[in-house]
Amino acid sequence: GKIPPVPSGPGDKPLVKEGLLLKQTSSFQRWKRRYFKLRGRTLYYAKDSKSLIFDEVDLSDASVAETSTKNINNSFTVITPFRKLMLCAESRKEMEDWISALKSVQKWETYEASQFNMEHFSGMHNWYACSHARPTFCNVCREALPGVTSHGLSCEVCKFKAHKRCAVRSTNNCKWTTLASIGNDIIEDEDGVSMPHQWLEGNLPVSAKCVVCDRNCGSVRRLQDWRCLWCKAIVHNCCKEQLGKVCPLGQCKVSIIPPTALNSIDSDGFWKATIPSCSSPLLVLVNSKSGDNQGVKFLRRFKQLLNPAQVFDLMNGGPQLGLRLFQKFETFRILVCGGDGSVGWVLSELDKLSLHKQCQLGVLPLGTGNDLARVLGWGGLCDDDAQLLQILEKLERATTKMLDRWSVMTYEVPTKQTPAIVKEEDPSDSPLQITQYADSVATHLTKILDSDKHSDVISSAKFLCGTVNDFVAEVGKAYERATENKEEADVMAKKCAMLNEKLDSLVKALSEDANAQLVPSESISPDESDTDQSRPFRSREQLMLRANSLKKALRQIIDQAEKGNSSPYVTATTCDGPRAGLRFCSEKCVMNNYFGIGLDAKISLEFNNKRDEHPKKCSSRTKNMMWYGVLGTKELVQKTYKNLEQRVQLECDGVPMSLPSLQGLAVLNIPSYAGGINFWGGTKEDNNFGAPSFDDKKLEVVAVFGSMQMAMSRVINLQHHRIAQCRQVKITILGDEGVPVQVDGEAWIQPPGIVQIVHKNRAQMLTRDRAFESTLKSWEDKRKGDSRPARPRLNSQQSMEYLTEEECAQVQQLGLVADTLINRCVCVCL
Fold this sequence. Notes:
There is one protein chain. It contains 18 helices and 37 strands. The chain is an alpha+beta fold. An 11-stranded mixed beta sheet has the order 1-5-4-3-2-8-7-6-9-12-13, covered by helices on one side. A hairpin with a 6-residue loop joins strand 10 (about 135) and strand 11 (about 145). The longest helix has 30 residues, at about 485-515. It is globular. Mean pLDDT is about 75; it is low at about 1-10, about 110-120, about 415-435, about 515-540, about 560-585 and about 790-800. Keywords: ATP-binding, Cell membrane, Cytoplasm, Kinase, Lipid metabolism, Membrane, Metal-binding, Nucleotide-binding, Phosphoprotein, Repeat, Transferase, Zinc, Zinc-finger. This is Diacylglycerol kinase. Its EC number is 2.7.1.107.
């Protein structure tokens, strides 16, 4: 019926969700944009939000389903006894939010997109529309489902089948997740609680055989026989009682968390484990958008193989939700299904929760580059969900190696001159802002070191002395207020006085140099060379000697002040170097794979911008690689960062490095770059460098000469230019313009300043050891051969039952020939 929009008064039903969706019309199946509101158990929609008349749909007996397995257009169907609505959202995340909201109002639950979707723990089915190539029957009414496209519904977790009209009458008997969901089927004995079978009737595969009698199961005429959702055992109706009641959980029993092991979620958001049987449970985190939305297929398949409560979508709440639920387990394993960005996201959350010591992380490659998965032994791509059983088996046999992780620290040179002193109304009550003094010191030290003009050096040095003098005065006052120990205060006063003397001496020398006349050495007469008025200015080395002495004294005062219990200034991470002065850096991000500056970073930045502008043009792995090729070809002509060595300075372990003519630099933590390129050029030790490894706390620095070099590296193993192998890298960006940099594929423009890469921590990674797998498999095969029971001795009648028809005919013919031969022998003897 037509009704006016419901006003949002205090006594009205609360607004659960609203927004724009595409609705398929009944005529010609066209799509039109409509505005939807969900209030209580009623869905309202109209042309726009300002409409006065809304259509309404009663959701009391409704069911919601995705339109297909792949669901490329993010569409879903709302099915009621009287009508059917086909709707389409802009993104998969928006579609999942609408489906969750529509399901929540049926249970009278409050919908919150930020919280965990509790439908996984309620037993509700997750429907999607599908067609069937063979006879299939409804688990509700037991009648056949038509084979026409999308005329039936299937649960993505337990494969429960239903007509669209029967879905609203189906019971909430989806795959169990917790101890409470098992209900009356639970098995209790003297040893405690055991896991029972969870049976689903009918719709068995063609080659199904009973585990009891080893005969064919299932039927194409009716719904019959049973299948366990956990151990995948198939039995006849008559053989069901002969099978044991306790479920062995099947091939994935090591990775499965049985529902009997999970009680509920406590108030802190952690699992309450009932039994300690799960020594190392598996947490699966899937990026549903990875690999052209192939992650959706893997997400559903993992829910079928494991407990749905241990499988999470990174696009629906991020990794924090799953990690918090598993935080109380002493040890657990994590399988990240996605690209390098997904792995970095999970590792960053592990940093925040401090979980690196109790978990090991494996990778299932679904992204574009997958460099980390390559070096860990999991391959460059996995797009077949039928291999998940083998992957879980290999994950159980994986070994653990440590992955070095690196902090990328940055400091930006201030573009404007920062005032040396910030005057306030009451300086005694306000804290000292040390960062303002630090910026001023850094700016003027840079001018002193880089400028060739005598006047600039003198003016900057004078300004620097004034800044330090004011800073020392403020530190002295603050220290007197902060400390009660008179001896410490006296020591600080003496150091401040000593520093003031050095400052006065330096200022006096600078004043003399400022008044001195710059006269060429050949024009100075011997008589005038000894006079003070015509003395040439002091050399830069002499000024630097005094400046370094000043810096050392200032450092001592800061160290002394930091020992105070209530130090009134802010501390920061310093990046000191031979030419850096006092620099204050902050952590920009964490590097797991590699760091790039120049050419490769510009290509990554342009690709990221292109993907943000046109997501559909970068929706698959093939399209992404094509875009990288196009952008690389463009740089082959433009050469934007030719002679990059003139714009950056490189230091490795504090030693300045001379750079050849190049277009980029690559700092490697793993021997795989940009989708499998070995930029280091080898994996073995030589006379100059050690073997590259991701667990040696060392970085490899390589020069990037051009896009042609990067393209050819994918085809042949070129001899790359190795610069250094070190434990710390520092890159100084000169000039007034920023340079593109990228970390693990995420790029940005870094302003002039300093980029320093230092070791942060180490993460436990699950690596695939193929040699170990081969040895273990051969040992298992040999063990099976040794334990094979000897064939029992049988009588003639039993022996005939074990032979084929051809073998029986041959035995009978042999008997006839033997009988004929015996008769002839008897005749000859007679």
